[in-house]
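The material for today's practical consists of a large collection of protein records. A record pairs a protein's sequence with a compact description of its fold. Instead of coordinates, the fold is spelled out as a row of discrete tokens. We will come back to this pairing of sequence and fold again and again. Here is such a record, shown just as it appears in the course material.
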Amino acid sequence: MEHMAPIAGTASSVQGVVGTVGAALIGFAIGQQFNGTPVPFIVGTALCAAGGFLIIILTEPKRLFAPMQADPEEQEAARESTAIPEDFG
């Protein structure tokens, strides 16, 4: 969305429509396999999860398995902070 600043509302709407129509089509395909047992639902859910994970692996290979690191400036600010959350005070 960063590159769509002038038309952010339109871009957001298009993303919403594409996501909704895509989900409806996938749901329709899974629903057509219904045979009175939960098997089509379970298989459909597993395939959707595997597909989503595959898309993440293909699009974010370096970020997915990289060690998590905090921003050094944020770490320093946290060390210097004397604020105590109200729940602990």
Q: What stands out?
A: The helical segments are 8-32, 39-59, 61-64, 72-80.
